[in-house]
Amino acid sequence: MRTNKKTTCNCNPFDFLTEEIIFTILDYLNDDPFAKKSFSLTCKAFYSIESHHRKTLKPLRAELLLRTLHRYPHIEHLDLTVCPRIEDRMLNVVSLACKDALCSINLSRSRFFTNIGLSSLVSSCFNLVEIDLSNGVELNDLAAAAIAEAKNLEKLWLARCKLITDLGIGCVAVGCRKLRLICLKWCLKISDLGVQLLALKCKEIRSLDLSYLQVIHVFYLSLGITDEGIAAVTFGCPDLEVINIAYNDKVTDASLISLSRCSRLRVLEIRGCPHVSSKGLSAIAVGCRQLMVLDIKKCFNINDTAMLSLAQFSQNLKQINLSYCSVTDVGLLALASVNRLQNITVLHLGGLTPNGLAAALLACRGITKVKLHASFKPLIPKSLLGYIEAHGCVFHWRDKAFQVEMDTKGWKLHFGKSAEAP
């Protein structure tokens, strides 16, 4: 009698899959790091596949950086925000390990590196397009000059790099012609000159943060941003889409009239600019028809006139902060006619009444989020609030005290002075 012997196959089904297909499978595990870990521990082949697939890395300990980068040789996005001590030698390790694969690095919570480490990084990682150096309070113009060697850089964050001056920004402007985003928030030694150099050399800028650059006088120098700097931006970067000039006390309506030439502007933040008024904002409404996000908190001279202009010309507006403005029931009702308006913050409006607020809320058909002062809650009928919530709106009630000016103590701390100093 003839018997059939069963032959067992020890082939791994994954052997028949291309690396591209396996990478696609691993892409579905991005939200579950433990699943990827389990995959890599299955066998040596999976271990190798997973190490080549990983593109993003956020190491927990700086001392293990060399070993980790050796394990993952194709990292494109390196996040070092949980490694507070990153020295120049560690940046040298990164440059040697990642080379041209690295596209972005986040050093916003790291310190102790200098221009030497940055120079090593950008010279080897010449495909870098994003660098975040926020909170680099010890970085100076030499560091900015090192960054200028990153010729392909598109996004640069320098928030609170308070030792960098116009000279350093000039180096960046000359070297990084492809910049599309730059953040100079709290860079207190930057003046109109630095902004003018950026506008002259970096024509591709789409997003610019110049907030908290109030004019200060140091010896014979006058530092800070004025209408001249903003005018240079509008002429040099006509395709600007996002700009933040909050808390600049020398910015006036002239700046807003200049910005109205940027027809692609989508986001405008001018909170804490006491010298802008409805005249400037009306010019923005007419010239910037694509405006979607507007923050005019503590712009005390903006009133109903500007709201009427926004209602007529800014039909793409989705989010607005009106806190502390001089807007009344009339202005808020006019604004309610903007069909795409979804998010509105209304705190400390002296001319606003419960009846006016209720009417405006009923008129805002697409509203999804409203931030109001808690004092209004008992003054609006519960049935009305329930009706609006049933249509998808979420109310956030705030019980904040009225604040007129920004904390001067905060300015002293950011400028590197003791809060108790005279």
CATH architecture of the domain at 252-400: Alpha-Beta Horseshoe
Average pLDDT, to the nearest integer?
Answer: 89
CATH class of the domain at 252-400: Alpha Beta
Count of strand segments: 16
Name the strands of the widest sheet in spatial order.
1-2-3-4-5-6-7-10-11-12-13-14-15-16
Task: Categorize the overall geometry.
Answer: globular
Number of helices: 17
Organism: Populus trichocarpa
InterPro entries: F-box-like_dom_sf, Leu-rich_rpt, Leu-rich_rpt_Cys-con_subtyp, LRR_dom_sf
Protein name: COI1 F-box domain-containing protein
GO cellular component, one term: SCF ubiquitin ligase complex
Question: Can you offer a commentary on this structure?
Answer:
By secondary structure, the protein is α/β, with parallel strands linked by helices. It has a domain at 252-400: Leucine-rich repeat, LRR (right-handed beta-alpha superhelix), CATH 3.80.10.10. It is built from 17 helices and 16 strands. It has helices at 19-27, 33-40, 44-53, 65-71, 88-98, 115-124, 141-147, 166-175, 192-201, 227-236, 253-259, 278-287, 304-313, 329-335, 354-363, 382-390, 408-414, and strands spanning 56-57, 77-79, 104-106, 130-132, 155-157, 181-183, 207-209, 216-218, 221-223, 242-244, 267-269, 293-295, 319-321, 343-346, 369-373, 394-398. It has a 14-stranded parallel beta sheet with strand order 1-2-3-4-5-6-7-10-11-12-13-14-15-16, with no helix packed on it. Strand 14 (343-346), helix 15 and strand 15 form a beta-alpha-beta unit. Helix 5 (88-98) packs parallel to helix 6 (115-124), helix 8 (166-175) packs parallel to helix 9 (192-201) and helix 9 (192-201) packs parallel to helix 10 (227-236). The longest helix has 11 residues, at 88-98. The radius of gyration is 27 Å and the shape is globular. 39% of the residues are buried. Residues 407-422 have low confidence and may be disordered.
